[in-house]
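re: ur question from earlier - yeah i can do the single chain one, its not a big deal. heres the input i used so u can compare w yours
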Amino acid sequence: MTTQPPMLRQYRQLKSRYPDALLLYRLGDFYELFETDAETVSRQLGLTLTRRRFAKDLRLPMCGIPHHRLTSYLGRLIRLGHKVAIVEQLEDARKTKRLVKRDVVRVITPGTVVEDALLRDSTANLLAGIAASPRGYGLATVDLSTGGFNTTQLDGSDPQPALWEELARLGPSEVVYPRSLADDPAFVSQLEALQTARLSPVDDDEFVPHRAAERLKTHLGVASLEAFGCDGLVEATAAAGGVLSYLQNNQISDLAHIVRLSTYDLSS
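and the output i got, formated as tokens:
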């Protein structure tokens, strides 16, 4: 078995933390992609695919993006629905004789974009979260650029049409939902029909109601959610807590500007 060179080992360790993301690995004046990431980006963006020799019998697919063109290429990847993890050098390569320290400094998905240059247009860029139970659905949205955070509950005898109608009205760039819903072909088909840039199933644990409520109270610095109108609205609370968890897990940056949660009623 071929021993992994230090740089490849570092790359793969970082990639293992973000297996569902394209890893842009800073190497000098380029952000490099390797293995399947390189093949994907080369094919979708029309970049030249080469191979890098890491050892005598180890050559891997590779393509690169010039650092000064990162914004342009990043915008294209986000519009294609990708999740991207950006790896930067944390020390000056000229001042060390060992492998340069690197780490992920930012994770970007279609629903977590804040830069104007990366946004599709001037409208709100929303990340939506869906929680489900036998009673109905919760739907929450966050606009990370403004801190706008809203949630609602859809229940009654047939709540699903109202869910699709509201999602179509909101037009989110990304939808987060429990992985168990991904096992429902009819539900996923309806989500795909929305033509959202990215669908992001996550562990069901992120939408457990009591955990979601505690997560919201901790982040908002309150003892009760009553002032935000969702106390007792189990699905609405679960959706909001699930979206917040997704942001906390994927945003390296601070979320301190999200200071308020608004609950609205679709039946009024």
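The two ends are 66 Å apart (CA to CA). not sure if urs matches, ping me
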